[in-house]
Amino acid sequence: MYGLGLLLRQGLTYRGGLYQLSWIAHRIAGLGTLLFLTIHIVDTSLVFFAPELYNHAIQLYRNPFFGIGEVILVGCVLWHGLNGLRIAISDWFPHLWSPQTQRPMLTAVAVAFLVLYIPVAVYMAVTIVARGFLGG
Amino acid sequence: MAASHRTARVVSPVRPRFDVAVWSYMRWSGVLLIPLAFGHLAIMHLINNVHVIDACFVYYRWAMVGWRVYDALLLWLAYIHGLLGLRYVIDDYVHQPGLRRGLKGLAVVLGVALLTVGSVALVGGVRVTELPGGC
What ipTM describes this predicted complex? Predict the structure, then answer.
């Protein structure tokens, strides 16, 4: 088992450029989202198994520390979704797997990610400061 | 003969049909998850957020069956998509057959457990009677 160490070493030695970076980010974002989802299914299920405990869990999530995690989560889902869409479309129409088409597609993914994520992250950060750090 | 024995050694059983099905599922569920997950994030993490959500919020939300169907789709599509993604990661980085089987078995157990727990909650709904103040 080589794990993350190999992934990072590969990232430094195998020069796949932006394409490889997009793949590493896809993987880490996917695993991060899976970890969150595992916790999220359990906490939401508390509405049935122990509703009072659910309210307590939500109370914990109001902590700015979790708020920052939430901003990271949204970034993970956005990147994984947009980059995954590029992979799915390219796999369904394999002639798209050429450097000439992948370059503009990856650029489109990166632009769409930044255009969506920057305002969302700013909006979430404002909420964290207003409701979390300053209390509201 | 000895050489062919060596080359024929199979480390993990190859199941092309299952792998093709997984490959297809990852793409179709992934595309469906884009509106479902992005929509969920927009509604439950941006328009509403943890500062306004509580058990009563979920109670009123789930009063509409449509939202339960939405959440059920999200639960099943996303968690199976995630665990099958984990399967790719395990295959890529874990090379000891025993450990690989063990980790995959753990993923199956986790999947069955969480999909059951989540589905029970979705069908059962919010037990308002357990809340001191009600809703």
Answer: 0.90
